[in-house]
């Protein structure tokens, strides 16, 4: 995927509903962020395999100067998801808030949002992930929420 695509160059808010075949597919999201230089808010609703820990390539090294908020729904706490969250924290200088949720929502046939909980993150796991991520932020004002 090219580093900059004209159709994404003016996006300020982006919601992605993605189903990953392998965890390495999270790097695709990193490349999409790279193609959105003005992106202010990213909401990722992810469906991914439970136990596949396949490695991908390298993460892009670009800094995201406008990104202020990130929500990641469907988080299972896999190593690759933690790497993605760490990547965002390390490259978003203006980041103010990152929310990570194990539940995710979909729009159902009755035109309403429906929450799904396939995976429940235990308090101890939440604390361990928080410890791994909290010191990674490039921005000194990030609020990190893990539920």
TrEMBL record:
PANTHER family in the record: F-BOX DOMAIN-CONTAINING PROTEIN, OS02G0105600 PROTEIN
Signal peptide extent: 1-24
Protein name, as recorded: FBD domain-containing protein
Lineage summary: Eukaryota, Viridiplantae, Streptophyta, Embryophyta, Tracheophyta
Pfam families, per database record: FBD
Keywords: Signal
Domain FBD: 64-100
